[in-house]
## 1
Amino acid sequence: VFVKSGKQIIGAVPGVDVGDKFQYRVELNIIGLHRPTQGGIDYGNFGGKLLATSIVASGGYADDVHNKNSLIYTGQGGNVMNRKDPEDQKLERGNLALKNSVQKNPVRVIRGSNMLNGSRTYVYDGLYLVEKYWQERGPHGKLVFKFQMNRLEDINLLGN
Amino acid sequence: VFVKSGKQIIGAVPGVDVGDKFQYRVELNIIGLHRPTQGGIDYGNFGGKLLATSIVASGGYADDVHNKNSLIYTGQGGNVMNRKDPEDQKLERGNLALKNSVQKNPVRVIRGSNMLNGSRTYVYDGLYLVEKYWQERGPHGKLVFKFQMNRLEDINLLGN
DNA sequence: TAGACGTAGA
DNA sequence: TCTACGTCTA
């Protein structure tokens, strides 16, 4: 797929298979897998409601328990990245979209990792469901959102 | 040219002609025309001395008198871009390299402009010489560097 | 206009 | 580690 779709897709993107690898975030944008070039949460307005369509877990945040079939994703905002002037994360934008997606729609997960040579690789890891979300206090004492994500394929294999 | 050169070139880049157009800064990096993906001044260490090799004039700074064959380029630093906490620009990095290049080596000039549809275009505008530089005070009262750049081709045509 | 798990180079 | 005339979307 070399042409930007322009339309936001929930679920699998045609032509993209689990395990497909990419080097740059902009590639994810071009094929419509994850549009923000920096943001970790992609979402859209569906029937007047924000729903999450994909997330990138690159390890940029000091998150999370990552297993092969589940992960805990940290919400955005609150200056968690730059660590300057930390604030409570708000239930808006991507965080709101993930909350609205709980137990509802599939969310594409892209896992990013750092290579030995210093470059990065992004791997499409398939569809997940946001099982639940909660707030907790980070090391700085401010509130952050956490989203429990579980792989959907396993459920499908059981005969969904 | 699809392979990153890796080596820093002073003067014309083989295969790139004056007037060649590009859409993204990363393209300039790939062909070795201008390596920084954001920075306006590219430079290298040549014999222990920093020399400028190329600049991008996108209008990001509130510069400059731009004619077809000359322009006045504003130095970098001092928070001129984001306008927060302005400071005096320092004679270091790109600014130092441009200063060292005065009346010395050719500098590639790429002109950026905003398209009607909101996208950008970068046009390679050929080789220029840094005629002179000076400091002046910006609207915020802080010192900024200015570099007078004149097109080199005209001189060549006269039989340099 | 502002926010975002970017990217390359010094 | 930090700077930089980025780039996309809301």
## 2
Amino acid sequence: GVELEEEGCGNEEDDEAWAMELSDVGAAGSLQGVHDQVLPTQNSSTRVIVHVDLDCFYAQVEMISNPELKDKPLGVQQKYLVVTCNYEARKLGVKKLMNVRVAKEKCPQLVLVNGEDLTRYREMSYKVTELLEEFSPVVERLGFDENFVDLTEMVEKRLQQLQSDELSAMTVSGHVYNNQSINLHDILHIRLLVGSQIAAEMREAMYNRLGLTGCAGVASNKLLAKLVSGVFKPNQQTVLLPESCQHLIHSLNHIKEIPGIGYKTTKCLEALGITSVHDLQTFSSKILEKELGILVAQRILKLSFGEDNSPVIPSGPPQSFSEEDSFKKCSSEVEAKKRIEELLASLLNRVCRDGRKPHTVRLIIRRYSSEKHYGRESRQCPIPSHVIQKLGTGNYDVMTPMVEILMKLFRNMVNVKMPFHLTLLSVCFCNLKALNTAKKGPMDYYLTPSLTTASHSGKRSFKMKDTHMEDF
DNA sequence: TGGGGTTAT
DNA sequence: ATAACCC
């Protein structure tokens, strides 16, 4: 890695230099200080990141589909859960991931729509990502309703376009975290301020073109942008200035609120007596490294100080397509086959519309068991090339051979001669490759996806050990 | 707990 | 193939 040190909260050394450089800007009405100094910082660790977070996304999509739902308390139901709900419903006590029965008790007027089919949510989700990509191509998706955008370059360009008399008239858009005042002589403040203006334009475009509202957080890294985006909640935005970084991170009541510290790590930290951000910041790094491994320990320790050097990675098209269904009980091979066929039919549609070809298929099951918090098993195998070729073309029957492959995977996992009880089935297409439409040419050997992309990039390689059809 | 996703080991 | 993380 080239980067030596944190961004995030600091750059105290630079701050004073900037203040000196710019101290005469107001009086002289010149931006030379900005222009001279902005360019050399372009590849430094001072970034401007926005996190965009849609308000109760599934519920919004449903309200757009059926405007009569707009002024009613609305919940989106998957199986017996209300997975999300609009703000009308929240006022009446409905919470995310609340049991349907409990939600109805709390709020008898609650209107429920089924949200088990994610198709429209997925489509709207990608429209949002594509809209954000118009601002800057560096957009990273997080789930269906969140995106990070690296605005660093855009901000630099806007600062270079700025006329000299415009600087003193610049204003922040939305909230400033902790009500901190902006110093127009501080280049870090100016850059984040410009970021807040771009964030406002993004939210305007999302509303005008897609009818969606959401929050945005602007800060110097992904962690802080994400944390600050939720400070003012529906349909508002907040910018974090460096001086308030510690205030933000210490406003968290528990380490589990830090993105990147998940269920397992939280349990492990709690066993060490660590519950608050301060506990983690001051805990022995050596002991932490022994308990969690050096990589996790060093990463979460940095996170606890608000430091996060992870880049915004453009998501691009999805790496996998999957469909799953959960149920109380599936205990026969015939029933499993029917459920797999349903999942497959939807998946084949999606894969066809994407245009790329999956080269691997995977079957995932969850077995019934009273305990065991997380128990999923999977088997995968390469898709035979003659099946891949038929995938885009509606003419040939691709269902039959695919179902046969999947049932072989099924019988490899489940001994169908013994009683079994499944509660989930899922089919996943992955290892997606672009069509090879290139005509023969001298360079093709080096450019063809199956050779170049897979074996050298390390990103989409054949690292997984597939069970081959010959094994059966 | 749903119905998805990602990367690392 | 699994385990961790995210929504």
